[in-house]
Write a structure and sequence with these properties.
Oligomer: homodimer
Shape of chain A: elongated
Strand content of chain A: under 5%
Radius of gyration of chain A: 24 Å
Number of strands of chain A: 0
Distance between the termini of chain A: 38 Å
Chain lengths: 238, 238
Protein backbone atom coordinates (compact mmCIF):
# COMPACT_ATOMS: atom_id res chain seq x y z
CA UNK A 1 0.00 0.00 0.00
CA UNK A 2 1.53 3.20 -1.13
CA UNK A 3 0.80 6.14 1.11
CA UNK A 4 1.43 9.68 -0.01
CA UNK A 5 3.64 11.13 2.63
CA UNK A 6 3.56 14.79 1.83
CA UNK A 7 0.90 17.31 1.29
CA UNK A 8 3.26 19.96 0.28
CA UNK A 9 2.58 22.95 -1.83
CA UNK A 10 6.03 24.30 -2.45
CA UNK A 11 7.99 23.96 -5.68
CA UNK A 12 10.57 21.66 -4.10
CA UNK A 13 7.96 18.99 -3.56
CA UNK A 14 9.64 16.47 -5.83
CA UNK A 15 12.91 16.70 -3.96
CA UNK A 16 11.08 16.23 -0.71
CA UNK A 17 9.40 13.13 -2.04
CA UNK A 18 12.73 11.60 -3.01
CA UNK A 19 14.40 12.07 0.34
CA UNK A 20 11.28 10.78 2.07
CA UNK A 21 11.29 7.72 -0.21
CA UNK A 22 14.71 6.83 1.18
CA UNK A 23 13.58 7.57 4.71
CA UNK A 24 10.53 5.41 4.20
CA UNK A 25 12.64 2.51 2.90
CA UNK A 26 14.90 2.78 5.93
CA UNK A 27 12.03 2.91 8.40
CA UNK A 28 10.24 -0.01 6.71
CA UNK A 29 13.39 -2.15 6.58
CA UNK A 30 14.34 -1.32 10.11
CA UNK A 31 10.97 -1.83 11.73
CA UNK A 32 10.51 -5.16 9.94
CA UNK A 33 14.07 -6.06 10.87
CA UNK A 34 13.28 -5.28 14.49
CA UNK A 35 9.97 -7.17 14.52
CA UNK A 36 10.58 -10.54 12.84
CA UNK A 37 13.99 -11.50 14.30
CA UNK A 38 12.73 -10.29 17.68
CA UNK A 39 9.69 -12.55 17.45
CA UNK A 40 11.77 -15.46 16.21
CA UNK A 41 14.24 -15.06 19.07
CA UNK A 42 11.38 -14.78 21.55
CA UNK A 43 9.80 -17.93 20.16
CA UNK A 44 13.02 -19.90 20.39
CA UNK A 45 13.68 -18.58 23.91
CA UNK A 46 10.62 -20.48 25.07
CA UNK A 47 11.71 -23.71 23.39
CA UNK A 48 15.49 -24.18 23.44
CA UNK A 49 18.12 -24.31 26.18
CA UNK A 50 21.01 -22.45 24.64
CA UNK A 51 21.45 -18.90 23.41
CA UNK A 52 23.81 -20.03 20.68
CA UNK A 53 21.02 -21.70 18.68
CA UNK A 54 19.04 -18.47 18.92
CA UNK A 55 22.01 -16.48 17.65
CA UNK A 56 22.49 -18.86 14.73
CA UNK A 57 18.79 -18.95 13.83
CA UNK A 58 18.52 -15.18 14.27
CA UNK A 59 21.47 -14.40 12.05
CA UNK A 60 20.24 -16.86 9.42
CA UNK A 61 16.89 -15.08 9.53
CA UNK A 62 18.50 -11.65 9.22
CA UNK A 63 20.57 -12.81 6.24
CA UNK A 64 17.53 -14.37 4.59
CA UNK A 65 15.14 -11.54 5.41
CA UNK A 66 17.45 -8.74 4.30
CA UNK A 67 18.15 -10.45 0.98
CA UNK A 68 14.51 -11.37 0.41
CA UNK A 69 13.28 -7.86 1.27
CA UNK A 70 16.11 -6.08 -0.52
CA UNK A 71 15.78 -8.10 -3.72
CA UNK A 72 12.02 -7.86 -3.39
CA UNK A 73 12.29 -4.07 -3.27
CA UNK A 74 14.64 -4.12 -6.24
CA UNK A 75 12.29 -6.23 -8.34
CA UNK A 76 9.26 -4.19 -7.34
CA UNK A 77 11.09 -1.06 -8.50
CA UNK A 78 12.16 -2.69 -11.77
CA UNK A 79 8.66 -4.02 -12.37
CA UNK A 80 7.20 -0.57 -11.83
CA UNK A 81 9.67 0.83 -14.33
CA UNK A 82 8.95 -1.89 -16.92
CA UNK A 83 5.24 -1.45 -16.43
CA UNK A 84 5.48 2.32 -16.88
CA UNK A 85 7.56 1.99 -20.03
CA UNK A 86 5.29 -0.58 -21.63
CA UNK A 87 2.17 1.46 -20.85
CA UNK A 88 3.81 4.59 -22.23
CA UNK A 89 4.71 2.80 -25.46
CA UNK A 90 1.13 1.60 -25.69
CA UNK A 91 -0.28 5.09 -25.16
CA UNK A 92 1.97 6.50 -27.91
CA UNK A 93 0.77 3.72 -30.18
CA UNK A 94 -2.88 4.40 -29.36
CA UNK A 95 -2.54 8.16 -29.75
CA UNK A 96 -1.14 7.55 -33.24
CA UNK A 97 -3.34 4.67 -34.39
CA UNK A 98 -6.54 4.81 -32.37
CA UNK A 99 -6.86 8.58 -32.22
CA UNK A 100 -10.66 8.58 -32.15
CA UNK A 101 -10.85 6.28 -29.16
CA UNK A 102 -8.24 8.27 -27.26
CA UNK A 103 -10.16 11.45 -28.00
CA UNK A 104 -13.25 9.81 -26.52
CA UNK A 105 -11.32 8.73 -23.42
CA UNK A 106 -9.93 12.21 -22.92
CA UNK A 107 -13.43 13.67 -23.19
CA UNK A 108 -14.66 11.09 -20.68
CA UNK A 109 -12.02 12.26 -18.23
CA UNK A 110 -13.22 15.84 -18.46
CA UNK A 111 -16.83 14.69 -18.23
CA UNK A 112 -16.04 12.71 -15.09
CA UNK A 113 -14.51 15.66 -13.27
CA UNK A 114 -17.66 17.66 -14.04
CA UNK A 115 -17.04 19.85 -17.08
CA UNK A 116 -19.79 20.77 -19.53
CA UNK A 117 -20.01 19.19 -22.98
CA UNK A 118 -18.56 22.29 -24.59
CA UNK A 119 -15.53 22.48 -22.31
CA UNK A 120 -14.93 18.73 -22.66
CA UNK A 121 -14.57 19.22 -26.41
CA UNK A 122 -12.44 22.34 -26.20
CA UNK A 123 -10.11 20.97 -23.52
CA UNK A 124 -9.66 17.70 -25.43
CA UNK A 125 -8.98 19.66 -28.57
CA UNK A 126 -6.23 21.68 -26.91
CA UNK A 127 -4.61 18.85 -25.07
CA UNK A 128 -4.42 16.52 -28.07
CA UNK A 129 -2.50 19.04 -30.17
CA UNK A 130 0.84 18.04 -28.64
CA UNK A 131 1.49 14.31 -28.69
CA UNK A 132 3.93 14.20 -25.77
CA UNK A 133 1.74 16.43 -23.63
CA UNK A 134 -1.26 14.23 -24.42
CA UNK A 135 0.50 10.97 -23.55
CA UNK A 136 1.91 12.47 -20.33
CA UNK A 137 -1.61 13.50 -19.40
CA UNK A 138 -3.08 10.07 -20.16
CA UNK A 139 -0.33 8.29 -18.24
CA UNK A 140 -0.78 10.39 -15.16
CA UNK A 141 -4.52 11.00 -15.00
CA UNK A 142 -6.17 8.22 -16.98
CA UNK A 143 -3.86 5.44 -15.80
CA UNK A 144 -2.69 7.02 -12.55
CA UNK A 145 0.97 6.18 -13.26
CA UNK A 146 3.84 8.37 -12.09
CA UNK A 147 7.14 8.28 -13.97
CA UNK A 148 9.43 6.20 -11.71
CA UNK A 149 12.96 7.31 -10.80
CA UNK A 150 15.24 4.93 -12.76
CA UNK A 151 17.75 4.61 -9.89
CA UNK A 152 14.99 3.98 -7.38
CA UNK A 153 15.09 0.16 -7.54
CA UNK A 154 18.77 -0.13 -6.63
CA UNK A 155 18.63 2.52 -3.92
CA UNK A 156 15.50 0.99 -2.49
CA UNK A 157 17.06 -2.48 -2.35
CA UNK A 158 20.12 -1.22 -0.49
CA UNK A 159 18.18 0.97 1.93
CA UNK A 160 15.72 -1.76 2.83
CA UNK A 161 18.28 -4.57 3.01
CA UNK A 162 20.80 -2.70 5.15
CA UNK A 163 18.14 -1.29 7.47
CA UNK A 164 16.78 -4.78 7.96
CA UNK A 165 20.25 -5.95 9.06
CA UNK A 166 20.73 -3.02 11.44
CA UNK A 167 17.22 -3.52 12.85
CA UNK A 168 17.66 -7.29 13.15
CA UNK A 169 20.87 -7.01 15.16
CA UNK A 170 19.08 -5.08 17.91
CA UNK A 171 16.88 -7.93 19.24
CA UNK A 172 19.67 -10.51 18.71
CA UNK A 173 22.50 -8.66 20.42
CA UNK A 174 21.55 -9.56 24.03
CA UNK A 175 21.82 -13.26 23.17
CA UNK A 176 25.49 -12.78 22.28
CA UNK A 177 26.25 -11.90 25.87
CA UNK A 178 24.06 -14.13 28.03
CA UNK A 179 23.82 -17.93 28.00
CA UNK A 180 20.28 -18.29 29.35
CA UNK A 181 17.72 -17.74 26.58
CA UNK A 182 15.10 -16.38 28.98
CA UNK A 183 17.60 -13.91 30.39
CA UNK A 184 18.40 -12.84 26.81
CA UNK A 185 14.70 -12.49 26.04
CA UNK A 186 14.15 -10.05 28.91
CA UNK A 187 16.89 -7.68 27.75
CA UNK A 188 15.94 -8.18 24.10
CA UNK A 189 12.29 -7.35 24.78
CA UNK A 190 13.12 -4.11 26.61
CA UNK A 191 15.62 -2.89 24.02
CA UNK A 192 13.53 -3.90 21.01
CA UNK A 193 10.22 -2.52 22.25
CA UNK A 194 11.88 0.83 22.94
CA UNK A 195 13.36 0.85 19.43
CA UNK A 196 10.00 -0.14 17.88
CA UNK A 197 8.36 2.70 19.77
CA UNK A 198 10.90 5.21 18.46
CA UNK A 199 10.56 3.95 14.89
CA UNK A 200 6.81 3.84 15.14
CA UNK A 201 6.96 7.48 16.20
CA UNK A 202 8.94 8.59 13.14
CA UNK A 203 7.00 6.34 10.77
CA UNK A 204 3.74 7.91 11.95
CA UNK A 205 5.13 11.41 11.70
CA UNK A 206 5.94 10.73 8.06
CA UNK A 207 2.43 9.55 7.24
CA UNK A 208 0.79 12.37 9.17
CA UNK A 209 -1.02 10.34 11.83
CA UNK A 210 -0.74 10.95 15.56
CA UNK A 211 2.86 9.88 16.29
CA UNK A 212 2.26 8.72 19.87
CA UNK A 213 -0.64 6.52 18.90
CA UNK A 214 1.34 5.27 15.89
CA UNK A 215 4.37 4.51 18.06
CA UNK A 216 2.18 2.50 20.39
CA UNK A 217 0.65 0.55 17.52
CA UNK A 218 4.03 -0.41 16.03
CA UNK A 219 5.32 -1.47 19.43
CA UNK A 220 2.19 -3.55 20.03
CA UNK A 221 2.59 -5.39 16.72
CA UNK A 222 6.07 -6.40 17.80
CA UNK A 223 4.88 -7.46 21.24
CA UNK A 224 1.96 -9.48 19.86
CA UNK A 225 4.08 -11.18 17.19
CA UNK A 226 6.76 -12.07 19.75
CA UNK A 227 4.22 -13.35 22.28
CA UNK A 228 2.52 -15.50 19.67
CA UNK A 229 5.83 -16.93 18.51
CA UNK A 230 6.81 -17.63 22.12
CA UNK A 231 3.47 -19.34 22.80
CA UNK A 232 3.47 -21.43 19.65
CA UNK A 233 7.08 -22.54 20.06
CA UNK A 234 6.50 -23.38 23.72
CA UNK A 235 3.45 -25.42 22.76
CA UNK A 236 5.22 -27.59 20.21
CA UNK A 237 8.78 -27.54 21.52
CA UNK A 238 8.89 -26.83 25.22
CA UNK B 1 5.50 0.30 -4.17
CA UNK B 2 2.04 0.19 -5.47
CA UNK B 3 1.73 -1.14 -8.98
CA UNK B 4 -1.40 -0.73 -10.99
CA UNK B 5 -2.30 -4.21 -12.05
CA UNK B 6 -4.88 -3.55 -14.68
CA UNK B 7 -5.07 -1.40 -17.69
CA UNK B 8 -8.64 -2.18 -18.33
CA UNK B 9 -11.14 -0.13 -20.21
CA UNK B 10 -14.38 -1.84 -19.39
CA UNK B 11 -16.98 -0.47 -16.99
CA UNK B 12 -16.35 -3.24 -14.46
CA UNK B 13 -12.85 -1.98 -13.88
CA UNK B 14 -13.40 -1.18 -10.25
CA UNK B 15 -14.64 -4.66 -9.48
CA UNK B 16 -11.64 -6.11 -11.24
CA UNK B 17 -9.35 -3.96 -9.15
CA UNK B 18 -10.91 -5.22 -5.95
CA UNK B 19 -10.60 -8.89 -6.75
CA UNK B 20 -7.05 -8.32 -7.91
CA UNK B 21 -6.28 -6.53 -4.63
CA UNK B 22 -7.18 -9.73 -2.79
CA UNK B 23 -5.23 -11.82 -5.25
CA UNK B 24 -2.25 -9.56 -4.84
CA UNK B 25 -2.40 -9.81 -1.04
CA UNK B 26 -2.50 -13.59 -1.30
CA UNK B 27 0.37 -13.80 -3.74
CA UNK B 28 2.47 -11.36 -1.66
CA UNK B 29 1.77 -13.19 1.60
CA UNK B 30 2.38 -16.57 0.08
CA UNK B 31 5.57 -15.76 -1.78
CA UNK B 32 7.02 -14.07 1.32
CA UNK B 33 5.83 -17.01 3.41
CA UNK B 34 7.59 -19.37 1.05
CA UNK B 35 10.82 -17.37 0.94
CA UNK B 36 11.70 -16.41 4.51
CA UNK B 37 10.85 -19.67 6.38
CA UNK B 38 12.53 -21.56 3.54
CA UNK B 39 15.70 -19.53 3.94
CA UNK B 40 15.59 -19.83 7.72
CA UNK B 41 15.16 -23.62 7.52
CA UNK B 42 17.98 -23.83 4.98
CA UNK B 43 20.23 -21.77 7.23
CA UNK B 44 19.53 -23.92 10.26
CA UNK B 45 19.99 -27.12 8.22
CA UNK B 46 23.64 -26.18 7.81
CA UNK B 47 24.11 -25.51 11.51
CA UNK B 48 22.06 -27.85 13.70
CA UNK B 49 21.82 -31.65 14.04
CA UNK B 50 18.12 -32.20 14.52
CA UNK B 51 15.07 -31.47 12.40
CA UNK B 52 12.98 -30.75 15.45
CA UNK B 53 14.79 -27.46 16.19
CA UNK B 54 14.18 -26.44 12.59
CA UNK B 55 10.49 -27.25 12.92
CA UNK B 56 10.22 -25.21 16.14
CA UNK B 57 12.16 -22.25 14.75
CA UNK B 58 10.26 -22.42 11.49
CA UNK B 59 6.85 -22.46 13.13
CA UNK B 60 7.87 -19.64 15.47
CA UNK B 61 8.94 -17.67 12.40
CA UNK B 62 5.68 -18.41 10.59
CA UNK B 63 3.65 -17.31 13.62
CA UNK B 64 5.71 -14.15 14.01
CA UNK B 65 5.87 -13.35 10.30
CA UNK B 66 2.17 -13.87 9.63
CA UNK B 67 1.19 -11.67 12.57
CA UNK B 68 3.75 -8.99 11.74
CA UNK B 69 2.78 -8.92 8.06
CA UNK B 70 -0.94 -9.23 8.69
CA UNK B 71 -1.04 -6.51 11.35
CA UNK B 72 1.32 -4.46 9.21
CA UNK B 73 -1.13 -4.73 6.32
CA UNK B 74 -3.99 -3.80 8.62
CA UNK B 75 -2.24 -0.72 9.95
CA UNK B 76 -1.15 0.37 6.50
CA UNK B 77 -4.77 0.16 5.37
CA UNK B 78 -6.01 2.06 8.42
CA UNK B 79 -3.33 4.70 8.02
CA UNK B 80 -4.29 5.17 4.38
CA UNK B 81 -7.91 5.60 5.45
CA UNK B 82 -7.05 8.08 8.23
CA UNK B 83 -4.80 10.00 5.90
CA UNK B 84 -7.51 10.18 3.23
CA UNK B 85 -10.13 11.35 5.71
CA UNK B 86 -7.93 14.04 7.23
CA UNK B 87 -6.92 15.35 3.80
CA UNK B 88 -10.55 15.37 2.69
CA UNK B 89 -11.57 17.37 5.74
CA UNK B 90 -8.77 19.78 5.01
CA UNK B 91 -9.82 20.20 1.39
CA UNK B 92 -13.42 20.93 2.43
CA UNK B 93 -12.10 23.49 4.88
CA UNK B 94 -9.93 25.11 2.24
CA UNK B 95 -12.66 25.15 -0.38
CA UNK B 96 -14.87 26.98 2.10
CA UNK B 97 -12.34 29.30 3.70
CA UNK B 98 -9.50 29.74 1.24
CA UNK B 99 -11.57 29.77 -1.90
CA UNK B 100 -9.25 32.07 -3.83
CA UNK B 101 -6.21 29.91 -3.25
CA UNK B 102 -8.08 26.76 -4.25
CA UNK B 103 -9.28 28.46 -7.41
CA UNK B 104 -5.65 29.27 -8.22
CA UNK B 105 -4.59 25.68 -7.59
CA UNK B 106 -7.35 24.34 -9.81
CA UNK B 107 -6.29 26.69 -12.58
CA UNK B 108 -2.70 25.56 -12.14
CA UNK B 109 -3.80 21.97 -12.64
CA UNK B 110 -5.43 22.82 -15.96
CA UNK B 111 -2.42 24.93 -16.96
CA UNK B 112 -0.09 22.01 -16.20
CA UNK B 113 -1.95 19.56 -18.44
CA UNK B 114 -1.70 22.07 -21.28
CA UNK B 115 -4.96 24.02 -21.50
CA UNK B 116 -5.11 27.65 -22.68
CA UNK B 117 -5.69 30.52 -20.25
CA UNK B 118 -9.31 30.80 -21.36
CA UNK B 119 -10.11 27.12 -20.83
CA UNK B 120 -8.29 27.12 -17.48
CA UNK B 121 -10.67 29.81 -16.28
CA UNK B 122 -13.80 28.24 -17.74
CA UNK B 123 -13.02 24.74 -16.51
CA UNK B 124 -12.21 26.02 -13.02
CA UNK B 125 -15.39 27.99 -13.04
CA UNK B 126 -17.51 24.94 -13.85
CA UNK B 127 -15.76 22.54 -11.52
CA UNK B 128 -15.94 24.85 -8.50
CA UNK B 129 -19.74 25.22 -8.72
CA UNK B 130 -20.35 21.97 -6.86
CA UNK B 131 -18.43 21.68 -3.59
CA UNK B 132 -18.36 17.89 -3.40
CA UNK B 133 -17.37 17.53 -7.03
CA UNK B 134 -14.59 20.07 -6.52
CA UNK B 135 -13.19 18.38 -3.42
CA UNK B 136 -13.36 14.96 -5.11
CA UNK B 137 -11.42 16.39 -8.01
CA UNK B 138 -8.78 17.98 -5.78
CA UNK B 139 -8.37 14.79 -3.75
CA UNK B 140 -7.87 12.63 -6.78
CA UNK B 141 -5.94 14.83 -9.19
CA UNK B 142 -4.19 17.45 -7.09
CA UNK B 143 -3.25 15.15 -4.22
CA UNK B 144 -3.33 11.85 -6.10
CA UNK B 145 -5.37 10.12 -3.38
CA UNK B 146 -7.91 7.39 -4.13
CA UNK B 147 -10.79 6.84 -1.74
CA UNK B 148 -9.82 3.65 0.13
CA UNK B 149 -12.25 0.77 0.59
CA UNK B 150 -13.13 0.89 4.32
CA UNK B 151 -13.07 -2.91 4.68
CA UNK B 152 -9.78 -3.17 2.86
CA UNK B 153 -7.56 -3.08 5.96
CA UNK B 154 -9.19 -6.07 7.63
CA UNK B 155 -9.45 -8.10 4.45
CA UNK B 156 -5.86 -7.30 3.58
CA UNK B 157 -4.63 -8.38 7.02
CA UNK B 158 -6.43 -11.74 6.82
CA UNK B 159 -5.38 -12.45 3.23
CA UNK B 160 -1.73 -11.64 3.84
CA UNK B 161 -1.52 -13.38 7.24
CA UNK B 162 -3.22 -16.61 6.16
CA UNK B 163 -1.31 -16.80 2.90
CA UNK B 164 1.92 -16.36 4.80
CA UNK B 165 1.00 -19.35 6.99
CA UNK B 166 0.05 -21.52 4.02
CA UNK B 167 3.21 -20.48 2.18
CA UNK B 168 5.41 -21.01 5.24
CA UNK B 169 4.18 -24.55 5.84
CA UNK B 170 5.46 -25.63 2.41
CA UNK B 171 9.21 -25.34 3.09
CA UNK B 172 8.80 -26.64 6.67
CA UNK B 173 6.71 -29.73 5.94
CA UNK B 174 9.59 -32.00 4.82
CA UNK B 175 11.29 -31.49 8.20
CA UNK B 176 8.26 -33.02 9.93
CA UNK B 177 8.97 -36.35 8.26
CA UNK B 178 12.75 -36.72 8.14
CA UNK B 179 15.20 -36.55 11.05
CA UNK B 180 18.29 -35.46 9.11
CA UNK B 181 18.22 -31.70 8.47
CA UNK B 182 20.20 -31.98 5.23
CA UNK B 183 17.78 -34.62 3.95
CA UNK B 184 14.92 -32.29 4.85
CA UNK B 185 16.65 -29.40 3.08
CA UNK B 186 16.90 -31.33 -0.19
CA UNK B 187 13.17 -32.07 -0.32
CA UNK B 188 12.30 -28.61 1.01
CA UNK B 189 14.42 -26.90 -1.67
CA UNK B 190 12.82 -28.86 -4.50
CA UNK B 191 9.24 -28.33 -3.31
CA UNK B 192 9.72 -24.66 -2.37
CA UNK B 193 11.54 -23.61 -5.51
CA UNK B 194 8.79 -25.17 -7.63
CA UNK B 195 6.16 -23.29 -5.61
CA UNK B 196 8.11 -20.03 -5.87
CA UNK B 197 8.33 -20.49 -9.61
CA UNK B 198 4.58 -21.03 -9.88
CA UNK B 199 3.83 -17.99 -7.69
CA UNK B 200 6.36 -15.88 -9.53
CA UNK B 201 4.54 -16.80 -12.71
CA UNK B 202 1.15 -15.59 -11.48
CA UNK B 203 2.59 -12.54 -9.75
CA UNK B 204 4.23 -11.46 -13.01
CA UNK B 205 1.09 -12.13 -15.03
CA UNK B 206 -0.77 -9.77 -12.72
CA UNK B 207 1.74 -6.96 -13.19
CA UNK B 208 1.96 -7.46 -16.93
CA UNK B 209 5.63 -8.41 -17.19
CA UNK B 210 6.91 -11.55 -18.93
CA UNK B 211 5.68 -14.35 -16.63
CA UNK B 212 8.49 -16.83 -17.34
CA UNK B 213 11.17 -14.26 -16.64
CA UNK B 214 9.26 -13.11 -13.55
CA UNK B 215 8.88 -16.69 -12.32
CA UNK B 216 12.62 -17.20 -12.67
CA UNK B 217 13.37 -14.00 -10.76
CA UNK B 218 11.12 -14.90 -7.81
CA UNK B 219 12.60 -18.39 -7.66
CA UNK B 220 16.12 -16.95 -7.75
CA UNK B 221 15.41 -14.57 -4.86
CA UNK B 222 14.36 -17.58 -2.78
CA UNK B 223 17.42 -19.57 -3.81
CA UNK B 224 19.83 -16.69 -3.11
CA UNK B 225 18.25 -15.90 0.26
CA UNK B 226 18.35 -19.57 1.29
CA UNK B 227 21.94 -20.02 0.14
CA UNK B 228 23.07 -16.91 1.99
CA UNK B 229 21.31 -18.02 5.16
CA UNK B 230 22.88 -21.49 4.83
CA UNK B 231 26.34 -19.99 4.30
CA UNK B 232 26.09 -17.51 7.15
CA UNK B 233 24.71 -20.05 9.62
CA UNK B 234 27.37 -22.62 8.61
CA UNK B 235 30.05 -19.99 9.12
CA UNK B 236 29.04 -19.07 12.65
CA UNK B 237 27.38 -22.27 13.83
CA UNK B 238 28.54 -25.29 11.89
Amino acid sequence: MDIHLHHDRNPHMEEHMKSSDALRDIVIGMSDGLTVPFALAAGLSGAVDSSSIIVIAGIAEVAAGSIAMGLGGYLAGKTEQDHYNSEEKREYHEVENLREREIEETKEFFAKIGLSKELQDNATDEISRDKKQWVDFMMKYELGLEKPDPKRATKSALNIGLSYIVGGLVPLSPYFFVTSPLEGLKISAIVTLICLFVFGYFKSKMTGINPWWGALRVMLIGAVAASAAFGVAKLIGG
